[in-house]
Amino acid sequence: MQSLLDAFPENLTSWLAEQAQPAFRGSQIQRWLFQGRADSFDQMSDLPANLRDRLQEQFQIWSTDIALHQQSADGTEKLLLRLADGQTIECVLLRDGQRRTICISSQVGCAMGCVFCASGLDGVKRNLTSGEILEQMLKLQRLLAPGERLSHIVVMGMGEPLANLDRLLPALDWAHRRDGLGISARRITISTVGLPPALDRLSRLEIPYHLAVSLHAPNDDLRNQLVPVNRGIGIAAILAAADRYFQVSGRRLTFEYVLLGQVNDQVDHARQLAALLRGQNALLNVIPYNPVAGLPYETPSAADQRAFCAVLTRAGIQVQIRERKGDEIDAACGQLRRKQLIGS
Ligand code: SAH
What we know:
This protein is α/β, with parallel strands linked by helices.
């Protein structure tokens, strides 16, 4: 059996040609996958029955199983997917007004080592394939009710997307192609710890994806502790690469800052951060720490969060505190998988 979504559509196109099938059969199957939300070849009712049978013998549409499906009262749904090799990954659907945002993973585990993040606690296991990345989008799309439409994608699940660009980019292509999911590149956010060579590669593509850079500290001393991969890079190099991306995309950047009580949430940190970001056309997304079992960090009080943001606002920086959604279903990256791994 071949995986349909990996190497899609080349594998399908060449197989159809071998079977002396007209090329438009490929377009029909593509429409069923992306617009028709079909789950099986059986449902592709405009294909001849014998072709459906042969497709079924040759290809599997899905390479993952839903190991867990959780729903919370605010409309958030989370899937824990079991991959063919037994590894698990997470992906999430968030509902907010008319918005239907999905959050997808790019790797099993993560090598960046951020000390407050559940995904990287056991390092990186492997990169996801393009098909596995695309499959998350399609499986989440199939959770929507008739009349609901995916509007946004954030690559903010497990893994560092810029460490797996070769496989991420083909999947994102299908996300924004009109004959794919048709989501505009501006509504697709790539969240990264900041890897300058990969950022430059993204700049050269000239596709206006929205970029979010996870900063978490206003100086290299602190960032080296919180985001160990920073040791070989440094904030200045990341800001310069982000700036080059901005020059090409013209899109306002987002900086993310996980607020850890007593660690990076003091007024002095806010002042340094304001100085760092002054003059950048950027939004600062402040994310109160979401507790991870076994880690020593604390979520700052609401008053401390406001005090931190007030310093930045007064300095003219655009700040937003990210609203927490799906807390009760462990919707922060890597938490559901971790619970399964450690069996708590
Ligand atoms: N590797 C990428 C994308 C995955 S993480 C990146 O670093 O951006 C997505 C966001 O969630 C990052 O900003 C990350 O720092 C944040 N995050 C990770 N663990 C968290 C936690 N326990 N609480 C709050 N935010 C967290």
